[in-house]
Amino acid sequence: MKKITQIGRLAFRVEGMWWTVYFAAPDTMDGAVEIARIAMGAVQNEERKRAFMELMKDALDEFIEEKTGERPSHWGETRAPESERSGRA
Questions:
Q1: Which strands make up the sheet holding 18-25, listed edge to edge?
Q2: Rounded distance, CA 60 to CA 71, Å?
Q3: Nearest to 77, CA basis, from 62, 48, 57
Q4: Of 28 and 18, more confident
Q5: Residue 70 pLDDT grade (very low, low, confident, very high; cuts 50, 70, 90)
Q6: Strand bridging mode 9-15 / 18-25
Q7: What residues have CB less than 8 Å from 75, skipping those under 6 apart?
Q8: How many of the other CB atoms lie within 10 Å of CB of 61?
Q9: How far apart are CA 70 and CA 61, in angstroms?
């Protein structure tokens, strides 16, 4: 059985009128790279919100596969630690 190694995570944060997506290290936002943003009004609908999240996961999967030759096989969802939360994040 192959061990799962976490190389990073997607962090979705509400920043004013935007929902901003970062690729971050597993345990910190230090050095996180913004990869996308969408107006909050566009993701008020739960179905669209989920579709945007899936699009971001898919895009990152593709990028990782391109760089490593292996497509990530597992995505978990967890709430951001208290130390990373701000506003509605």
A1: 9-15, 18-25, 28-39
A2: 9
A3: 57
A4: 18
A5: confident
A6: antiparallel
A7: 57
A8: 14
A9: 9
- Summarised one tens digit per residue, pLDDT across range 23-65 is 998 888 999 999 999 999 999 999 999 999 999 999 988 988 8
Report, in angstroms and rounded to the nearest whole number, the Rg of the chain calculated over CA atoms. Answer: 14
Cβ distance 74 to 4 under 8 Å?
yes
Q: Could you count the other beta carbons within 10 Å of the beta carbon of residue 39?
A: 10
Q: What global pTM score does this model have?
A: 0.78
76 residue type, one letter:
G
- Specify the amino acid at residue 68: T
Q: Contact at 8 Å (CB) between 14 and 87?
A: yes
